[in-house]
Amino acid sequence: MKTAMKTPPIVSAQEWEAARQQLLVKEKKLTRARDALAAERRRMPWLAVTKKYEFDGPKGKASLHDLFEGRRQLILYRAFLESGVKGWPEHACVGCSMVADQVAHVAHLNARDTTLAFASRAPQKDIKRVKARMGWEMPWYTITDDFDKDFGVDEWHGTNAFIRDGDKVFRTYFINTRGDEQMGNTWNYLDITALGRQEEWEDSPEGYPQTPTYEWWIWHDEPSKTDEDRPGLVQLRAYRVYAKGGGASKRQKQSQKGKTK
Fold first, then answer.
1. DSSP of 192-213
2. Residue 127: is it exposed, middle or buried by C-beta count within 10 angstroms (0-12/13-18/19+)?
3. What distance lies between CA 124 and its chain's CA centroid?
4. In angstroms, rounded to a whole number, what is the distance separating the alpha carbons of residues 127 and 152?
5. 251: pLDDT strictly greater than 60
6. Measured between alpha carbons, how far is 219 from 227 in angstroms, rounded to an integer?
7. Does the structure show a pLDDT above 50 at 114?
């Protein structure tokens, strides 16, 4: 016999709103805790990557440095698309495929000087075929050496974050297992990088690149153009002018600062 689902009580609109406000306190606390954790990530020590690695890509051989595509940061997800994986040769593993389905347009990461790429053991011809079938557009490379073993992704999926300083490459963070569940949207990807979202409200070490909140948002089909008059940005600029003139009270400034987080 099927057990009846025990649902919450049915309440009035006022009671429902009161319950939502009560839970909202906890949700905001969680948001602040997540921001604080991201700030700690930005202070993680860096690990120099001195070993040379070689990948196959759509344009031929590529080094780890090449995967940055000229940008300062690289986020590299190890997906299981290869012989021996359930679903092969038509699909990548179902979990990795679900991750790939959730990835936001990479132009938004690129706007923060960050490249997102996937890597697997399958040859490029098979990667190209599966990407076309599934409608995936992120750069996807073939691992040809011990990269997966050296970076903890030879037996399980995982996401590595790197930063470069000229020709030098450093590993800055790594998540796997359930940590990958949050991946896919631009914000969460940026939060695991060494530089973060690069917005002024963030708690980052001195000298880190930062710009005003909202200023860097783009349309992915016109990455060099922003909407100067979009809602929120106009009000934010007006507030900044007002605050610089000394007209805003301390409480108003704190309130506005909170809205930018």
1. TSSSTT-BTTS---TT---B-T
2. buried
3. 25
4. 22
5. no
6. 8
7. yes
How far apart CA 134 and CA 230 sit, in angstroms, is: 33
**Element (H or E) spanning 78, and its range?**
strand 73-78
Q: At 257, is the pLDDT very low, low, confident or very high (cuts 50, 70, 90)?
A: low
CB 169 within 8 A of CB 162: yes
Sign of CA dihedral 117, 122, 127, 131: negative
Residue 120: how many other CB atoms lie within 10 Å:
23
pTM assigned to the model: 0.86
Sketch out the chain's domains with CATH numbers. Answer: 47-191 (3.40.30.10)
pLDDT digits (tens, 9 = 90+) for 192-207: 999 999 999 999 999 9
Residue carrying structure tokens 């530089």: 195
Among 40-49, 63-72, 80-89, 231-240, which stretch is predicted with the lowest mean pLDDT? 231-240
| pLDDT band at 3; cut points 50, 70, 90 | confident
Q: Cα–Cα distance between 161 and 155 in angstroms, integer?
A: 18
Determine how many CB atoms are found less than 10 A away from the CB of residue 26: 9
Q: Is 57 helix (H, G, I), strand (E, B) or coil?
A: strand
Report the pLDDT value the prediction gives residue 181, as an integer from 0 to 100: 82
Rg (CA), the chain: 22
Report residue 153 as tokens.
Answer: 């992704």
The gap from C-alpha 50 to its chain's centroid, in whole angstroms, comes to 25
Alpha carbon distance 207, 229 (integer Å)? 29
